[in-house]
Write a structure and sequence with these properties.
Number of strands: 7
Structural class: alpha/beta
Strand order of the largest sheet: 3-2-1-4-7
Distance between the termini: 28 Å
Strand content: 25-35%
Radius of gyration: 15 Å
Length: 159
C-alpha cells in the first residue's frame, strides 16, 4: 500500500516556547477509497527540530504493516535522515559528530530509524510556505496545536 505522510512542526519562533506538530496521512484502500488521518500535538516546550522529528515519527508509527511511504516535509533537518550519510556516520561514531560533538535529539533519531525500518520510505522535501496544499495544511495544524496550549499525549512521552 502507498501512503503519503505530510508533516510539519512549529515552535512558534521560540525554542523555549510552545510548539506543536501537524501530520496528515493519506492512502487509498483496497476498494479504491481515499482516506485521510490527521494528527496534531499541542503545547510542548521544545525546539522546532524536535517537532519535525516527532511529526515524522507520529505518522510512521500509525502504520501497522510494511508500506511504501512518501514522507513530505519542509524540514531540512529531516533531510539528514533520508538523503545524507550523516545518520550512518553518527551511528558508527557512537552518535557523535565532528570533533566528538554529541548529536542532538538522539532519542528521537533512534525512534525515527525504528519507525521507518519496516517501510520503504522516500523523503520528499517541500519548500515551506510555497503554496503546496498539504504543506500549508500541516503548517496550519502545527500552528493550531501550538496556539491551543492543549497538551496531548505525544511521541516524546513514550520514549
Amino acid at each position: 500500500m502507498l501512503v503519503d505522510i505530510y508533516t510539519d512542526g512549529s515552535a512558534r519562533g521560540n525554542p523555549d516556547g510552545p510548539g506543536g506538530y501537524g501530520c496528515v496521512l493519506q492512502y487509498t484502500d483496497r476498494n479504491g477509497e481515499l482516506h485521510e488521518k490527521e494528527l496534531s500535538q499541542g503545547y510542548k516546550k521544545t525546539t522546532n527540530n524536535r517537532m519535525e522529528l516527532m511529526a515524522a515519527i507520529a505518522g510512521l508509527e500509525q502504520l501497522r504493516r510494511p508500506c511504501e511511504v512518501r514522507l513530505y516535509s519542509d524540514s531540512q533537518y529531516l533531510v539528514k535522515a533520508f538523503n545524507d550519510h550523516w545518520i550512518d556516520s553518527w551511528i558508527r561514531k557512537g552518535w557523535k559528530r565532528g570533533k566528538n560533538e554529541p548529536v542532538k535529539n538522539v532519542d528521537l533519531w533512534k525512534r525515527l530509524l525504528r519507525a521507518k525500518e519496516p517501510h520503504k520510505v522516500t523523503f520528499i522535501w517541500v519548500k515551506g510556505h510555497d503554496g503546496h496544499e498539504f504543506n500549508e495544511r500541516c503548517d496550519g495544524l502545527a500552528t493550531a496545536a501550538a496556539d491551543g496550549n492543549d497538551l496531548i499525549d505525544d511521541v516524546i512521552e513514550k520514549i
